[in-house]
Amino acid sequence: MQAQRFQQFFSRYKILALLIAIAIIWVFFASLTHGAFLTPRNVSNLLRQMSITGMLACGMVFIIISGEIDLSVGSLLGLLGGVGAILNVTHGWSIGPTIAVVLVLGLLLGAFNGYLSTYQRIPSFIVGLGGMLAYRGVLLGLTGGSTIAPVSDSFVVIGQGYLPRLVGDGLALVLFVLLAFLTIRQRRSRQKYQLSVVPFWQDIAKIVAAGLILLAFIATLDNYGGIPVPVLLLLVLLGAFSYMATQTVFGRRIYAVGSNMEATRLSGVNVNLVKMTIFSLMGLMAAFAGMVNTARLAAGSPSAGSMGELDAIAACFIGGTSMRGGSGTVYGALIGALVMASLDNGMSMLDVDAYWQMIVKGTILVLAVWIDVVSGSNRR
């Protein structure tokens, strides 16, 4: 009986359960590191580290919701980051043209993956597996197996820079006002159409809690440089992808394709075009993540992005995205990415052996999928 109640609670309040899990993880590592885990410096590094997985998760969540998978994103991240380093270091390109070329290349390679998976009917698992090997091979060929360094200072800012504190504080205030406005607007919209609404105090509590979290977030980062540029970029992408998922026709079609592809096709939706667009967005996110990773390391590495696809997939499943498709949220995937980054960071600080880190992360991935399967069987 208690197990069933827990499953029902998790199904209804997934994000709350994930936030509680993160709090437990942070308290656990803080106690073992004598508070070092929660220092402003480490929190800043943790969020910077999480931003790369988060960018991949933004695209991967759409892939999984549509009922597909893409195993090539880690190698694609490495390839696109390597191309950026080669253009910047070897050919002396400035940051503007370098970013433009890398983003367009990521979009095209993502579209190519989508074309093979949709119009050529090759299973996305096979397309991703082939891309994982092929893109890594291309990267090794372009770099000769050696690191390309150092990238220009303007490139490094993308991965290592900070916003001025006043600018960061202003953006935080704007974000809080926007959150309050959207919460109130959603409530009024539901009342207008005579839909059920939660008690007013719950919406107020939600806004106050978000404000307190945001205040703690900004205060901590202000004690160590300010908001990192990669974190700002991730927040912008979070807003864009969340809006796309919840406020656009295209977003509704993504969920429809994952829920029942044939019914969606019969309703007149071009399913192949929707899926190809999703894969294109995934390639674009791999380009963003590749550039941030290269800037963070100040170099293009032939091993960059290794296992990145597994971290992104795990983040989506931990964040509540259903492996059956048709269900999931972008912010849930990013919270899942924060869980993965917290585990990586904490175990690294404790000097846990690499094989134990892999065992822990693999176990959590299987546990997340098991919870999804159990909650799905209960709904049926």
From TrEMBL:
It comes from the Bacteria. One of its GO terms (cellular component) is plasma membrane. Keywords: Cell inner membrane, Cell membrane, Membrane, Sugar transport, Transmembrane, Transmembrane helix, Transport. It is found in: Cell membrane. It is a multi-pass membrane protein. GO terms for molecular function: transmembrane transporter activity. InterPro entries: ABC_transp_permease. The chain crosses the membrane at residues 15-34, 95-115, 122-142, 162-184, 204-221, 227-250, 271-292, 354-374. CDD domains: TM_PBP1_transp_AraH_like (cd06579). Pfam families: BPD_transp_2. The keyword Cytoplasm does not apply. PANTHER family: ABC TRANSPORTER PERMEASE PROTEIN YPHD-RELATED-RELATED, XYLOSE TRANSPORT SYSTEM PERMEASE PROTEIN XYLH. Part of the binding-protein-dependent transport system for D-xylose. Probably responsible for the translocation of the substrate across the membrane. This is Xylose transport system permease protein XylH. It comes from Pararobbsia alpina.
